[in-house]
Amino acid sequence: MALGKSYSSKLKSRGLNASNVEATDEGLVLVHCTRAMGRKRIIVSNRTAMETLPFSSNFRTPSKRRQGMRTIRDDEKSLLEALPEDILVRILCCVYHDDLKQLIQVSKFVRDATLVAKQSHFAYSTPRAKISSLSSDLEHYSPEAPNAPRQQRCPRSRISRKKLSDISVALFHTPEDERWSRDGLFDQTGV
Amino acid sequence: MASPKVIVLRTCDGETFEVDESVVYVSETIKNMIEDGCGDGVIPLPNVSSKIFPKVIEYCKKHVSDFESLKKTSNGDEKEKDKDDDSSKKGKEAVPDVEEDAEEKARVEELKEWETTYMDIDQQVLFDLLQAANYLNIKGLLLMAAEKAASMIRGKTPEQIRETFNIKNDFTPEEYEEVRRENAWAFE
User: Fold this and answer.
1) Inter-chain contact B161–A97, Cβ cutoff 8 Å?
2) Which of A91, A129, A183, B135 could pair covalently with B47 via S-S, beta carbons 3.0-4.6 A apart?
3) What are phi and psi of A69, to 5 degrees?
4) CA-based Rg of chain A, rounded to a whole angstrom?
């Protein structure tokens, strides 16, 4: 185990065998740890040993985004990405369903905001009807079936009133109805 | 009629603005601060710059009549005639009248035209306006600005969106492919 210079005294005070501690020219301390791991020498620079964890690398991991604010780079400053996420979500709630697919591919920040908007808003709203590219005449455009046969608003009955009167019988007789039905029945029976 | 109370507001860069109380009442945030007793002193607005504040006030002045008529109706008082060129909103049930309908249509048309001119702004101003409207809690302005921003997104490909807003594609090729594959079905 290798440790910073200032630690060597602490180690000695904690009972590590002083003979195992070596001081190098660079100010590092090499300690031969023979207890569990056998002889192992790992040189860690003085500064990093005091400041960082033993297994940290020299590369700094990117800092986490706080509250949707992105660190602004010098050359590339995007105004949209500088917005807080909740405002971007509000904007995205005004776009159409079809645009969501495009938005998730723009960047990671926009994708995250799009997913939030999808869960909170688009999951509860109906997508716009897709307009067929083939139909040029908007008067005949039907959202459900573009090629469906046209139906009249008021379907005409195939049975004429006269035919209906021949085959129908009044169930509940009123004075006027009785006269009518009697005539109709007599016609039918031929009496 | 009592003279309208003037509220003093200070933006984040130290500039002060004196605005009528009825105008700033359009902002829910400022309204709550006044009702909590901050109206006598200077109201600080740490998240609003002096550059964007006049634009916000312009919106508030245009829409103060909407708020005024709602306030008076809820109090049960008679409606006042509005100032400037806004006609008053109908609080009580109006008898259908051709003249009133025509007036209402004209008012809506005029408001639409005003909004088109008002929103003819660049991206920086638009996003400043969004943040200010969000902080000051002015729902109508926030919606209008969000709609404007959304109109710049609708119908565009990812590359076009990146170009419009100067966004860098921070996906690696593998991540990009994964995003496309995973979410293609989710958005059908």
Assistant:
1) no
2) B135
3) -85, 125
4) 43
